Amino acid sequence: MNSPGLQTKEPSSSLKNSLTHVPGIGAVFQIYIIKDLEKLLMIAGEERALCLVDVKKVKQSLAQSHLPAQPDISPNIFEAVKGCHLFAAGKIENGLCICAAMPNKVVILRYNENLSKYCIRKEIETSEPCSCIHFTNYSILIGTNKFYEIDMKQYTLEEFLDKNDHSLAPAVFASSSNSFPVSIVQVNGAGQREEYLLCFHEFGVFVDSYGRRSRTDDLKWSRLPLAFAYREPYLFVTHFNSLEVIEIQARSSLGTPARAYLEIPNPRYLGPAISSGAIYLASSYQDKLRVICCKGNLVKESSTDHHRGPSTSRSSPNKRGPPTYNEHITKRVASSPAPPEGPSHPREPSTPHRYREGRTELRRDKSPGRPLEREKSPGRMLSTRRERSPGRLFEDSSRGRLPVGAVRTPLSQVNKVWDQSSV
């Protein structure tokens, strides 16, 4: 569901605040604040154009929202970047950069201090639409049919994963089995060496800044993932009608990471929450859109508790906290009249436990598998890496619902705070 336009919440002393539409800006699909320039970078309009809007103009429009007529805000549109579905912005070597993705290419823009504007530096064609973008301190990582790294000095492209590590073979050739990149998550803590979790449709691998395996075991998802978000130390994975929370342990930690599953109707990741280890989600249920603050609070069961069976007591010390999502939905369903069953009133389908879709809607090639020599890969083999990754022998990756030894953490161990208002 697309937003009808750029809307801001109007500060007011009244009991009910309202949303104010910013005139001159159409549907907004993605938005980001460039603090150094005090501008909003967004994908907006029917043409999905990449554009910039001055924050001061938005504040001025908000201050004049009570007037009968307001002048339209004219965004600064990048005419060469239309049909955009994804972008990322950041700093590389103290220079402001933007990487925008279109169906058949990615565009690199850099800010020119003399001209006071972003200028296109490189356009790179891709065989598949770009699904994820991540900025490092010196390069840009992207995911198309594979994971690639863009060097920002020469604007060259090369495959990111180390082909000399045979344990990474399932990830290197994942596209041949219709498992494509979904997300790039940086999981290292402050002051630690860079470490990334490369997420595919069916599994995730931990690698270092050179694309070499950094952990022996992979992560596997029991359902088709739609989006990933990391708030140290928790990885949030959204599915069609559920949310999976995984605790990412340190490299030296032993044992299976704790997991929890929450049944949430149509969850959509909105962004990081104010509190640590928490995210904001949007959930559509019974024709209403609700905003949820979900905070990971996983407590791994001990081996003795696991043999005795799941505990029935709540792990949260806050006994007077807000109701859980299941309690909330149960009360709403119990209070509302049950709809009659029949052809005209079908029952709401339950959450499926396994999905067979292998590719997103953006994928153009529907063939079950393409020969590797026919791939129009934009990357080239990296031949300058001399260090050999201490990887393990190739193992056929299983596709079970849960990894061996995984523990289903009771849902009560994840704290969820509901916003009392609904949109």
TrEMBL record:
Source organism: Rousettus aegyptiacus (Egyptian fruit bat)
Record InterPro entries: CNH_dom, Rho-assoc_Ser/Thr_Kinase
PROSITE patterns, per database record: CNH
GO molecular-function term, one example from the UniProt record: protein serine/threonine kinase activity
Catalytic reaction(s) noted: L-seryl-[protein] + ATP = O-phospho-L-seryl-[protein] + ADP + H(+); L-threonyl-[protein] + ATP = O-phospho-L-threonyl-[protein] + ADP + H(+)
Region (Disordered): 301-405
Biased composition (Basic and acidic residues): 344-399
Name of a matching Pfam family: CNH
This protein's UniProt keywords: Kinase, Phosphoprotein, Serine/threonine-protein kinase, Transferase
Domain CNH as annotated: residue spans: 1-277
Name of the protein in question: Citron rho-interacting serine/threonine kinase
